[in-house]
Amino acid sequence: MTRKKKIPFTFPEIIRKLKYAGLSNVDALNTVRSKEPEVEQISERIRKVFHLYKTASAKPDHMIFFIMYDIEHDKIRTQIAKYLLKKGCIRVQKSVFLAQKERKLFDEMHTTLKEIQEMYDNEDSIFFVPISTDELRSMKILGQNVTVDMILENKSTLFF
User: Fold this and answer.
1) What are the phi and psi torsion angles at 13 (to 5°)?
2) 11-20 helix and 103-117 helix, angle to the nearest 10 degrees
3) Cα 116 → chain centroid
4) Which of 92, 118, 139, 156 lies 20 to 30 A from 79 at CA?
């Protein structure tokens, strides 16, 4: 007897199943708290952002972009965070991700999240913001326990 290989559900299929399970209204989406993926330490997030910056010019067919969201429903927000992490996005803050991907994947992610948002009643917003390497270079980081040495591998560069 051969066992059928289990094909994983796509992200829209997961959300559709949540909706059909009776989770289409606001109250049901927030009744059970979903475990949102942990946010890494600030030093690790900064290291990933600067690694992305350093490799940006080596990938001319890729684009850099932020994805930012304001999503009310815990389950939907958690699923979107997991989806973005699975797609290789860097979590900069709880609701802000940074990615360097091919334009095709940027469009695919946009289409998928648009489809998800249209599945349920909401007033949520999701922003896809392309940026250039110059804009990334101009980024400033403020926070406790953030030092220039932690951010830079090249100690001769100074950020203000």
Assistant:
1) -65, -40
2) 0
3) 15
4) 139
CB 116 within 8 A of CB 13: no
Question: What's this model's pTM, rounded to 2 decimal places?
Answer: 0.69
CA distance 104 to 5: 28
Q: Each residue of 88-145: pLDDT tens digit? A: 999 988 999 999 999 999 999 999 999 988 888 889 999 999 998 888 777 777 776 6
Highest CATH level, class, for 43-151? alpha beta
Provide the token pair at 141.
Answer: 């980081």
Nearest to 30 by CA among 128, 121, 141: 121
DSSP3 helix / strand / coil % (the chain, rounded to 5): 40, 15, 40
Report d(CA 133, CA 139) in Å as an integer.
10
| Amino acid occupying residue 117 | Q
Residue 48 phi/psi, 5-degree rounding, is -65, -40
Q: What are phi and psi of 20, to 5 degrees?
A: -70, -20
- Amino acid at residue number 97: F
What beta strand segments (E) does 4-109 contain?
A: 62-70, 90-93, 96-102
* DSSP H or E run through 140: none
